[in-house]
Write a structure and sequence with these properties.
Elements lengths: L12 H13 L4 H15 L13 H15 L9 H9 L1
């Protein structure tokens, strides 16, 4: 049998309770879930899921601002439907 050790971690009580309930439905306790996370982290060489900022880059932000302006600025041509746009593109 492999040697084990205790591991202490501080976390929000509400999150802990929600996770305990969820993992109980899956048939495991929080300790087992943490062990699964750690083993999977070792297997993949990092977090076993994408970890990234949920912020768009500068190019995307610029495109979003341009789209917002186009949607609200009367100087931009607007179409009632795609067919109307396609018809004008063909002309």
């Amino acid at each position: 049998m492999s040697e084990t050790t205790n591991f202490t971690c501080r976390m929000d009580t509400k999150i802990k309770n929600q996770c305990e309930e969820m993992y109980a439905e899956l048939g495991v306790n929080l300790s087992t879930a943490v062990n699964v996370f750690m083993r999977e982290s070792l297997r993949v060489g990092g977090f076993p899921f994408d970890v990234r900022l949920k912020q768009p880059n500068k190019t995307t932000i610029a495109a979003m601002l341009e789209a917002e302006k186009a949607a609200t600025d009367p100087a931009y041509k607007h179409y009632d439907d795609v067919e109307q746009l396609l018809k004008e593109l063909k002309e």
